[in-house]
Specification:
The protein is of the alpha/beta class. It is built from nine helices and twelve strands. A hairpin with a 5-residue loop joins strand 1 and strand 2. Helix 3 crosses helix 8. The longest helix has 17 residues.
């Protein structure tokens, strides 16, 4: 790969923007197509399909035989709430290749002792979330049960193109949450994006089981279409007392 192309590709990846490298098999000639430019590219249909599936592969095109190498950002999981469920969710998310960030202004909860080797931001969501680049490759989970923390965080997530948004709480808790969000001007169609009660319907009770239910639902939403993923929703209410691509060298 030529240095200028590699530099441009790494810049896109650093900014969490998807891109496709088109390699002409016969000539070896390569070009970089940024996600924002796909709609104007002669191979837009095939590029869009490969970007949608995040899969690289060979294609016969009007330009000849090409190999499309797809680069998409590593999925990230952003959690509000440095709680017991988060402690169980963190290693699961990292095992599945997610870049993990936990936001909680309560420093007694958001401590390195409770979350070793986890990116912690002990700030309110209004400060912490905008710099994180929450995007279509982001799963967002609200776990504090504190409207002062979760509601602003959910408002931010709903304003972005997250592929998953989930919130802890019973149906009654979520109904109250819905009313608060409506009072903030959020429409029903946007609120319907929130998975609540959060998690797959596996009868989860303990923090570890709820973490499994949440990570399962995130995976189903990422990997399956909405119609197939939706029936499995709604298992984990509040308890009684979350593959990244290789870096380009």
């Amino acid at each position: 790969m030529q240095l200028d192309l590699l530099t441009a590709l790494n810049a896109e990846r650093a900014a969490r923007r998807a891109a496709v490298v088109v390699t002409h098999v016969e000539s070896g000639r390569q070009r970089l197509v940024k996600a924002a430019d796909i709609a104007r590219d002669p191979l837009r249909a095939v590029l869009a399909e490969h970007l949608r599936t995040s899969k690289s592969g060979m294609e016969e095109t009007a330009e000849g035989r090409v190999f499309l190498t797809v680069y998409v950002p590593a999925p990230q999981l952003v959690i509000t709430g440095a709680v017991h469920i988060s402690q169980a969710l963190a290693p699961l998310a990292r095992l599945l290749g997610y870049d993990l960030t936990i936001v909680d202004p309560r420093t007694a909860f958001a401590s390195p002792e409770r979350f070793p080797d986890v990116k912690l931001i002990a700030q309110w969501p209004g400060q912490a979330l905008p710099p994180l680049g929450i995007d279509r490759y982001t799963a967002f989970v609200a776990l504090t049960h504190d409207p002062k923390i979760d509601d602003p965080a959910l408002l931010h997530a709903l304003s972005r193109d997250c592929f998953y948004i989930g919130a802890l709480g019973s149906k009654k808790t979520h109904a109250r949450r819905v009313e608060r969000l409506k009072a903030q001007g959020i429409e029903d169609v946007a609120i319907a994006r929130i998975h609540a009660p959060i998690g797959l319907a596996i009868g989860a009770v303990s923090p570890a089981e709820i973490a499994v239910a949440i990570m399962g639902e995130i995976t189903a939403t990422l990997r399956l279409d909405k119609e197939r993923a939706a029936p499995a929703r709604g298992a984990a209410a509040a308890p009684a007392a979350p593959a990244a691509p290789e870096k380009v060298a």
